[in-house]
Structures are given as structure tokens and as C-alpha cells.
């Protein structure tokens, strides 16, 4: 039986006036070959737009998806070249194509990048008067304008095992060098199809980066101020799956890769509810340096150490995760995270960016990360110079 620690109890007691809610909008369909369920899910729609990235066309999944939509009796139009780590400019580029086709169903077939792009396109297609700056969470000290009710349905079919965007209420977009979120239940997909055949074609690096993002989602969601027993269950299962199966998945074990695919969505359900913390705040503001999952993996042990030394609650929560993994305590958990990074070949930050460029951006990154909305959910509220120090330590590999 899981026994809540004294600290968790006391934290929950402190926030006992805060009512937590666990929700999931998305219908989840899973299993090998489940892509074919698209023919059922697309029935009743007239004009279906499939958005995807190059690999989905290359590996034949786009063609397969188009055939299922035609089988459903709908007209289909596809866009195949969406880029990774999307920016606001990508939305501006593709929005006219969406408007021209006038779809009544959007299908996102690809990684977190494709799904996030499709979510943002849905917002500006359904609510044309809005602009990114007014609805995005730019700064936790100011409130964005609420997104109105959106009508176009969205089916997400992830091809990576990481972002969890197929169930989340967020779309993450780059503006300049940094990332900001649009967060609204209106963009949480209506259906997610988890077909493990898709992630099997991921190159090792994509599988590693997205797989380590699952770990960061699980660990951050387990330790936020709004984690609940319900989100904990999803987060813990995802964390254990990463430690048990990520390396096997990278070695080409098909069953391990399938498990990672479901774990990714479970971690998504965890952070949909419990949100994320300082690691994501920092990686979003360092987005110019490299892929999302990789930056998170590099930053995670530093953030965990910081949280554990400053917060009783964080320490106890990390201890709980450690025990589930048959480790002694939070220190061993941080070592295990570092060990996994090393064994899977995660580089140092200093291998991704030269010192002069990094130092020139450091103050701005720290200030922007401090203002990121996710900091409000982190177990410790950091000061800007503490965040600066964490970036520096990660850069120096200390
Ligand atoms: N919305 C959320 O809640 C949320 C949460 C976490 C992260 N994110 C965001 O998600 C993005 C990262 O998503 P991701 O980690 O899933 O990776 P990704 O950026 O979607 O994909 C990375 C690359 O992997 C390739 N790829 C994807 N699936 C493949 C497959 N099955 N076979 C071969 N190649 C494949 C794609 O190449 P091709 O171009 O050749 O297809 C793509 O360039 C970031 O922008 C991050 O900020 C969003
Ligand atoms: Fe993430």
C-alpha cells in the first residue's frame, strides 16, 4: 500500500481549500494496427485535413491514414511537411491552407510538433480574430485572454513517444528564441489513436529525446503543488516504464517500444492535471539550443537537486519515487536519472552551444524562465538568480 508521507499530508492540508480536479477529454484507442480505427472515427465528417511531417509520408502511414478517411466517405486533403519544434511563423504559413480547405475534422499524424501545430491551427481557424500574444501564457504575472469555444474536432495520432500532446491541453510554440504555451481544454484532442507501429520507425535519437521527456513529465507531474492521487498513478506508472523499458526500446525491442508509447500518453494525462515545473520552464526558455526532450533531460537532475535541497515536500516525493524503483532515497533517484542520461548518450549543454553565445543569453533566459507560468506549480519558487545558477551549473556539467 502507498503510504502518504507526513509532508505530503501537511502540504495537502495547507491547500485543503483548493479543490483539485482530474479530467481527460480524449478518447484513447490503442493497439497494433489501431490506425485503422480512423475510418470509424472519421465517419460523419465531410472534409478531413491530415497534418503530418515528412517521415509519416516516407513510411507510408500518411497514405494509410488517407485511405481510412476515404473509406469513411470523407474528402481528404493532406499537408506533409510540418517542421519539428514549431514556431508562430509556421502557424502563419499553414493557416491559409487550412482556411482554403475548410475542414470539419483535423487529424494530426506525427510527433508532438505536428500535434502542437495542428492544435494552434485549430485555434486560429476556428477563432480568426485572435492573435498568439493575447492568448498565450507569456508571463505568469499577467493573464491571457480566454480562448472561446472551438468547433472543429481533432484526432491526434502520435508517432513519437514523448510529448503527450495527444491528450494535453497545451500547444507549445516558439516565438523568437523561446517557447510559450497556449493552454485551453478546447485544444485537447477529442480522440487519440496509439498505434505502436508508428513509433517503431523513430530513429534512435528521436526515441531517446522523446522518451526522456516522458521521464521528465512523470517526475515533474509527481512533484508539483497540485499533484493528486489520480495524477500520481499515471505519473508513477510512466516513470517506472521509462526506467524499465527505455533502454530496451532504444536497442530495438518492439515490446519495450510499445510500452514506452503508452507510458508517454500516461505521463501526458499526469501533467494535463498536475502540470509541470521548473525544468520545463527552463527548457522552454532555452529552446533555441536544441530539441525539447534533450534539453529537459539535461536540466532535470539540476532542478531535482535544487528542489530537494529547498523543499521537504519535494524530497519526500522524490523518496516515494525512489522506493517504487527499489532505490533508497532522492539522492539515489537523482543518480539514477544521471545514469540513464549517460547510458543513453545525452550530451552536455556545452556540447550543444558555445560558451560565449550561452553566456550572452543567460540573464534573459533566467528572467524569462522565472516569469514562466509553470514555475507556479514547482514545489519551490526560485529566484531569477537561482535559475541563472542552475543554467550555469548545467552548462558546466557540475
Ligand atoms: N503540447 C504539449 O503538451 C507538449 C508537451 C511536451 C513537448 N511538447 C512539444 O513537442 C515537441 C517535441 O515533440 P516530440 O518529442 O514528439 O518530437 P517531434 O519534434 O515531433 O519530432 C522530432 C522529429 O522526429 C521525426 N519523427 C517523428 N516521428 C517519427 C517516426 N515515427 N519515424 C521517423 N521519424 C519520426 C520527425 O522527422 P520528420 O520531420 O522527418 O517527420 C521530427 O523531425 C516540442 O516542440 C515540444 O515543445 C509539447
Ligand atoms: Fe515536455
UniProtKB/TrEMBL annotation:
Keywords from the UniProt entry: Oxidoreductase
Gene Ontology molecular function: any one: metal ion binding
The keyword Flavoprotein is annotated on this UniProt entry: no
Keyword Oxidoreductase in record: yes
Domain Fe-containing alcohol dehydrogenase-like C-terminal, first and last residues per copy: 210-395
Ranges in coiled-coil conformation: none
The Alcohol dehydrogenase iron-type/glycerol dehydrogenase GldA domain, residue ranges: 26-196
Region forming the signal peptide: none
CDD domains: NADPH_BDH
One Pfam family named in its UniProt record: Fe-ADH
Highest taxon above the source species: Archaea
PANTHER family given in the database record: ALCOHOL DEHYDROGENASE, HYDROXYACID-OXOACID TRANSHYDROGENASE, MITOCHONDRIAL
Protein name: Fe-containing alcohol dehydrogenase
Taxon lineage: Archaea, Methanobacteriati, Methanobacteriota, Thermococci, Thermococcales
